[in-house]
Specification:
Elements lengths: L36 H25 L28 H6 L8 E2 L14 E8 L5 E6 L5 E7 L4 E7 L3 E5 L5 E6 L5 E5 L2
Parallel strand pairs: 2-8
Antiparallel strand pairs: 1-7, 2-5, 3-4, 3-6, 6-7
Length: 192
């Protein structure tokens, strides 16, 4: 007799997609345990990209040469010691080829305002007087900021910005002349 045994159903297993209670999320089969490694990698990658972007931006905004500074940093520039200012001779002044910057009267100091457009330029100050003179920048607060003293016959090259006002004074602080920086480098010859 070949009697077949009846099939026995497998042990009861609750469905994996039906929630146990209406407020619970549905159950799903899970594979290997999930890690947060992918999210951490994404956050680290984004952080590195932001840092790299900040470095590139800083390099693009940094002045391109040692002599180039921001207008706000000009007041912090250290004065040039007198020993480093080269002696000027008549042929050197003539050989510079720089256009002569017109001297404005000393009385214009109270009326002139610094009107820079941020374009870097330079002025060569040359003292042709018989006395020592001082070169000062008329800063944004309309105050003189000393940069150099020039003995008779000395010259001094000053990096500046278009529209900056420079005041030339005698030893006691009396103004002799004023010069306004132009877009092209220029020669400011201080005369009696």
């Amino acid at each position: 007799m070949t009697d077949k045994l009846p099939e026995v159903p497998p042990a009861y297993q609750p469905p994996t997609t039906v929630p146990l209670a209406p407020w619970e999320p549905p159950l799903v089969e899970t594979g290997p345990p999930q890690t947060k490694r992918g999210l951490a990698t994404l956050v680290i990658t984004l952080g590195l990209l932001l840092c790299l972007g900040a470095v590139v931006l800083a390099i693009r905004l940094w002045p391109q040469s040692k002599n180039e500074t921001s207008p706000a940093a000009v007041t912090a520039t250290a004065p040039v010691p007198e020993a480093t200012v080269p002696e000027a001779t008549a042929p050197e002044v003539a050989a510079t080829g720089l256009p002569e910057l017109p001297a404005l009267p000393a009385s214009a100091e109270q009326d002139l305002e610094d009107a820079t457009d941020g374009t870097s330029t330079a002025i060569r100050f040359t003292n042709t007087t018989s006395a020592t003179i001082s070169v000062s920048w008329l800063n944004y607060d309309h105050n003189r900021t000393w940069y150099a003293d020039l003995a008779p016959g000395q010259s001094y090259d000053q990096q500046t910005y278009t529209g900056h006002v420079w005041v030339i004074t005698r030893t006691g602080g009396t103004a002799l002349a004023l010069y306004v920086a132009t877009a092209a480098p220029a020669q400011a010859t201080i005369r009696q």
